Automatic annotation (TrEMBL), chains A, B, C, D:
Stated name of the protein: DNA replication protein DnaD
Residues of the full protein shown: 1 to 127 of 237
Family under the similarity heading: Belongs to the DnaB/DnaD family.
Domain annotation DnaD N-terminal: ranges: 17-114
Length: 127, 127, 127, 127
């Protein structure tokens, strides 16, 4: 094991997962395979590839290309993932994945939970 | 959504995954469900709980308690996860999970890959 | 350079800084030396030492012990850092640093900035 | 405080600092102001700006533009920071900062320290 790997390890930003997401993804209907796929998308974006192919994603997962393509389609259908079209200054169009809908769903979920907790504690105080 | 959640989000350290791990876990025989379980263990340790129960882990996953217990057992059997006994200064014994075997396996894999790449390029140069 | 360091690098969680903090610490009156000191406190807490000594902190900084002690005192006085007393189940008291006041100040600042931006754009619309 | 900020906080990757760097930057002759400047450069790169101006950097620091420009110059002179020229497929040239020399220096330092520790313990065993 040489310097090259150490260097690589130091240089490359780790993928980070907000703890709120770790704690609540299952409650908003995401399973572990989908969660890891979303993390791979976040990772590719960090590396400068905002629209990785099913092929590229599958190469880092224990899922073949067609299974990966299906997972992507399902995440889009469930409203957790979005495909965006971007236009640069030369008018060239490119696509990218956005995890914004996921974060929205997560925040709504957390808000509701908090609201229900308050309601609940209000009712208990009255009783 | 109020300040309380913002505060929480700022305060709590995200879970971090070294990119080397993201890129190679599948190659060393870990699937996505197992990977997420290992990340939950890392997360619990960050929160000061080095030996979370299958119950606690399952509460954050899309897996029930007995499935989670099985996943833990398999990871230990495959040599990716270790249970350690620790003794504090008062002689009290506690247990904790260690991901050290996982990191060892990962580094060995990466080393071999690098070695093989060199061998390969050496052979091509000769041919 | 051997496996041991690679292992260490993989295992040890990096210190993370929320981007909101990176972008606004200077606006709430924190300079770079203070910011790094706060990050060292966060780092020590991650390593299981919630109340590092000026000596321990200074050992990782380009500041001697007495300068470090002064920086700590100033941060407490400015309301960015708090010392908390904790009592465990055996009644033993221990102290820890809390960065909560820092996060509060940051959120208040960001809220105000947002409010002023709205006010400003409102006034421009009217004019 | 509204959803918008929560969303932002969740979405934006935090800046991460390898613990090895936190523990040894002072030993390789970097002070806190320089360290924060390097972190800002890392942050800008994450945001897609690999060559931020002294103006842009200074806007997030407690240092004015000319002080920031001096800090950058010193870091380059001390061999901690490098300016690279990159050419895209259309032949356009752009510049970017690279922290590679910093990581090299850090790894060399850590290696030496380890070597000296071994030497030392060897000598003690003999004595």
């Amino acid at each position: 094991m040489n310097n090259k790997w150490m260097h690589q390890l130091m240089k490359s930003s780790p993928v980070t997962i907000p703890s709120l997401l770790m704690e609540h993804y299952a409650s908003i209907g995401i399973n572990e395979k989908e969660m890891m796929l979303l993390l791979h998308i976040r990772h590719f974006a960090q590396e400068g590839e905002p629209f990785p192919t099913p092929d590229g994603l599958s190469g880092r997962m224990s899922a073949n290309i067609s299974e990966t393509a299906n997972l992507l389609r399902d995440l889009v259908r469930k409203g957790m993932l979005e495909i965006r079209e971007n236009q640069d200054q030369h008018g060239r169009i490119s696509e990218s994945y956005s995890l914004d809908p996921l974060y929205e769903k997560l925040l709504t979920h957390v808000e509701n939970e908090q609201y229900e907790a308050k309601e609940q504690s209000g009712r208990e105080d009255e009783g």
